[in-house]
Design brief:
211 residues, alpha+beta, Glutaredoxin, 2 domains, 7-stranded mixed beta sheet, 4-stranded antiparallel beta sheet, 4 helices, 11 strands, binds copper (II) ion
């Protein structure tokens, strides 16, 4: 039998978890040793395997069970942190800012570096024919220009051996180039996957609606 003890510092509340192994299935038995405290918080620092100093019995069992039931939810709430993106843009670039808003709306955490865009582009290995208005770095990949967040997510999931993605030029209708000023106009464009040798292939095609 395995016994685990949990204590919440300064409240005097302790609890003992006993895991028994009868036949046929293991059972979990939860006992509150020390009643009276209003809440129980279990975490990695307050769960230990030695018995606490004192023990009496009963109550607060429901609170303990609730705390245990909520534990996975607490983990979820603190779950995967947002993916961080470094962006280099010139201070006057408005469409760059609109692309940043698009990335933030899709769950990325964006850090903006003003200026040094050309230097960052060269450093990250974006060929000149793939250049656009801003350059970004996410998960070790370079992202050049108005690449849709969904393609960045796919890239991070598939993890190809590559420099990164680019939407060369400034395609009208791409994220950040789709503000009301463009009246819903979309030009066709392709997101390109840039290989480590600098060559590029179509990663995702987008249809336009302009006649
Ligand atoms: Cu732009």
């Amino acid at each position: 039998m395995l016994s685990l003890y949990a204590a919440r510092p300064h409240t005097g509340l302790t609890a003992r978890l006993q895991i028994r192994h009868p036949r046929p299935a293991p059972r979990l038995r939860l006992t509150n040793i020390n009643p009276g405290a209003p809440e129980v918080v279990f975490n990695q620092t307050n769960v230990f395997t030695e018995p606490p100093m004192k023990s009496n019995s009963s109550t607060s069992r429901r609170e303990l069970l609730m705390a245990l039931a909520l534990l996975p939810l607490a983990r979820l709430a603190h779950g995967a942190p947002p993916i961080e993106v470094q962006v280099w843009k010139e201070p006057t670039c408005g469409c760059c800012g609109d692309w940043i808003k698009h990335m933030e709306a899709n769950g990325f955490k964006v850090f903006v570096n003003l200026g040094g865009t050309n230097a960052a582009r060269a450093r990250l290995g974006i060929p000149q024919n793939m250049a656009s208005c801003h350059t970004a770095l996410v998960g070790g990949y370079a992202i050049e220009g108005h690449v849709p967040a969904r393609d960045v997510k796919r890239l991070l999931k598939e993890k190809p051996s590559a420099i990164g993605l680019s939407a060369p030029g400034m395609p009208i209708g791409s994220p950040g180039m789709d503000t009301p000023a463009y009246n819903g106009k979309k030009n066709p464009y392709s997101v390109m996957l840039i290989a480590k040798n600098g060559s590029s292939t179509v990663y995702q095609k987008y249809e336009g609606n302009a006649s």
